[in-house]
Amino acid sequence: MLKEEEKNSGPLKERNEEKTDDADSAERSWLANAALFFLELVKIAVLAGITIGVVRYFIFKPFYVEGQSMDPTFHEKEYLIIDEITYRFNEPKRGEVIVFRAPTVEKDYYLKRVIGLPGERVKVEDDKVIVYNNDNSTGVLLEEIYLENVPTPGQTTITLGPDEYFVMGDNRKASFDSRRFGPIKKADIIGRAWLRGWPVDRITLFEAPVYNF
Questions:
Q1: At CA 113, angle to CA 188 and CA 136, rounded to 5?
Q2: Given a cut of 80, is residue 24 above it in pLDDT?
């Protein structure tokens, strides 16, 4: 009787072993697929991190507005995206709002508007801004539509070198700018204000304004 049971148990045992082997194989296959999926996620995360890093440090930079020197164009605590790539191929234009290294405070940055370009002479007098250049040797009054007839106090005349810019804040009565610290060098310019991202109701893409000359 015992021999008969042993005889009948042989194929059953083999089938059980086959099922166990199949289960182990399926588990190993699942683990292998999970590992491959995880590796793909890691690759995607690394590539995304590199892309974000390149964009963040070499193309666009976030900037928070501090102070009221650019009122009413920019308000304190607004969030801007600064375009860092354009000036590697093109020169700053009159009217563009730029971020540059502060000439008087280490590791600080200012946000101002470009008023005078290399080779020009800028005069601030009688609450007005007059620009002299090759096309306007006798000077032309700068009309700034974004200021809505706000006067420009001060008394200064500055002739700009080949890589120098005259900058001012839009809040002319409360801006520390080229009227005080003189021109800035192109090498100190970080980039131009490209987009206001916050607050949502003031999201704006920026372009240089059109002037009267």
A1: 100
A2: no
Residues forming the active site: 69, 112
Domain range holding 26? 1-59
Q: Comparing C-alpha atoms, which of 159, 196, 189, 167 is closest to residue 90? A: 189
* pLDDT tens string 171-199: 999 999 999 999 999 999 999 999 998 89
Coil, helix or strand at residue 11 = helix
Alpha helices (H) along the chain:
2-54, 178-181
Separation between Cα atoms, residue 74 and residue 113, nearest integer Å? 11
pTM to 2 decimal places: 0.73
77 and 135 part of one domain: yes
**What are the DSSP E strand ranges found in 40-152?**
60-64, 79-83, 97-101, 109-116, 121-125, 128-133, 136-141
Residue 154 forms part of a structural domain: yes
User: Residue written as tokens 């200064």?
Assistant: 156
Query: Are 82 and 180 in a shared domain?
Result: yes
